[in-house]
Amino acid sequence: MTRFSPARPRLVVGITGASAPHLGIHLLRCLRDLGTVETHLVISQAAHRTIELETTMCPSEVAALADVVHRRGDIAASIASGSFPTLGMAVAPCSMRTLAGIAHGYGDDLLTRAADVCLKERRPLVLVARETPLSLVHLRNMVAVTEAGATVLPPMPAFYQRPSSVEDVLAHLSGKVLDQFGIEHDVYPRWHGPVPPRPGITVQPVEGAVS
């Protein structure tokens, strides 16, 4: 049952068992606070474990952040059909197992099936792929999903906004995901170019800097 009007655009969010479930949790919180999008959540079996191991939350608390929660084994769920309109899907974090399944059309559960729906319907699919270092298999799978129409968005922090906390880093990453779907937000400060020095102040070049 939804808590808000179904007239709002819908976004599917998947959380897999890769390290850093914080990525998906923060994204859900941003979407809840914005209130402009109806969220449909799928949590993989492995993600239940990483949520318990890496956060202070339990899976049911994470689920409570979404408007609609689907069981991972429910292939009859609304998001398993292309006739159910959505903005697309974000998988955050996206494990290499899930990436491989999506890359090769192996929809063995609702999460990978929902991702496959986005590809076949030409809807945005954003995969926040979380692994390091990357093997050749990982890289080839990333090429495959990109060629199929997905966007691989590794959770690489930016420092131009000078983050002072993990929250700042997560906010930037969530904002980058929202940007992919054209969802308006003010989650992170955008770059508008360097601030020019005040008159009378001389900026010394950094020693060893390469132009």
UniProtKB/TrEMBL annotation:
The keyword Transferase applies. Its EC number is 2.5.1.129. It comes from the Bacteria. InterPro entries: Flavin_trans-like, Flavoprotein, UbiX-like. It catalyses: dimethylallyl phosphate + FMNH2 = prenylated FMNH2 + phosphate. Dimethylallyl phosphate binds at Y160, K176. FMN binds at G17, A18, S19, S44, S95, M96, R97, T98, R130. GO terms for molecular function: carboxy-lyase activity; flavin prenyltransferase activity. Coiled coil: none annotated. Keywords: Flavoprotein, FMN, Prenyltransferase, Transferase. It is an enzyme of class 2 (transferase). The keyword Flavoprotein applies. Residues 10-180 form the Flavoprotein domain. Belongs to the UbiX/PAD1 family. Flavin prenyltransferase that catalyzes the synthesis of the prenylated FMN cofactor (prenyl-FMN) for 4-hydroxy-3-polyprenylbenzoic acid decarboxylase UbiD. The prenyltransferase is metal-independent and links a dimethylallyl moiety from dimethylallyl monophosphate (DMAP) to the flavin N5 and C6 atoms of FMN. This is Flavin prenyltransferase UbiX. It comes from Pseudonocardia kunmingensis.
